[in-house]
Design brief:
Helices cover 72% and strands 0% of the residues. The protein contains 8 helices and no strands. Helix 1 crosses helix 2, helix 1 packs across helix 3 and helix 5 runs parallel beside helix 7.
Length: 186
């Protein structure tokens, strides 16, 4: 266990610094309390990670589910009702696991899964372009688009009128660190 500590400790610190804002951001985007995002990260990271049997698996809150969670909370009427639905869904998943019903997943084409994940990635990148240049016009979130008739692309074009040199410099430095990170560590 301790013979891999030299490699596991830096990796765990990096995962922590990536996962913490991700968990908080997904909870905020989902309309859930921020603390629930931390709980999801802890349960996903420690409990699920130790029970899964995978040596390289990562689990926790997923950005692709934020819109689904937000809609579910609105549809069910409260966060507490949503939590009940999640617990019942977890029980059903455990039953499926005991019954070895995971083979049903083979009937979903991998291209559908890859397409969904690619779409989520493109949306995340496009949503970050205004922040890259220091323009943050949607503190209310995407629901403000309904009022003004805008969308992600109109916000990108609006961004170029409000470029902040300081924010852009910080963004370029951060992007440079991300690109060079692998070259420096190997």
């Amino acid at each position: 266990m301790f013979k891999y500590l030299k490699n596991d400790l830096p990796a765990s610190i990096v995962v922590f610094f990536v996962a913490l804002p991700l968990c908080l951001g997904i909870a905020l985007a989902s309309g859930a309390p921020l603390f629930s995002g931390l709980i999801a990260g802890i349960v996903g990271g420690i409990f699920v990670g130790s029970l899964s049997g995978s040596h390289i698996g990562v689990s926790g809150p997923a950005a692709g589910l934020a819109a689904i969670v937000l809609t579910a909370i609105a549809t069910l009427g409260s966060f507490e009702n949503f939590l009940l639905a999640v617990v019942l869904g977890g029980i059903i998943q455990l039953l499926f696991g005991v019954l070895k019903a995971g083979v049903i997943g083979y009937y979903f084409p991998s291209s559908v899964i890859k397409g969904m994940l690619t779409g989520i990635g493109i949306i995340i990148i496009l949503k970050q372009i205004p922040h890259f240049f220091g323009y943050d016009a949607t503190p209310e979130g995407d629901f403000s688009f309904i009022q003004d008739g805008g969308n992600t692309f109109t916000e990108i074009f609006t961004t170029f009128r409000y470029i902040s040199p300081g924010a852009t410099l910080i963004s370029v430095i951060g992007l440079g660190v991300l690109i060079l990170w692998d070259r420096v560590l190997t």
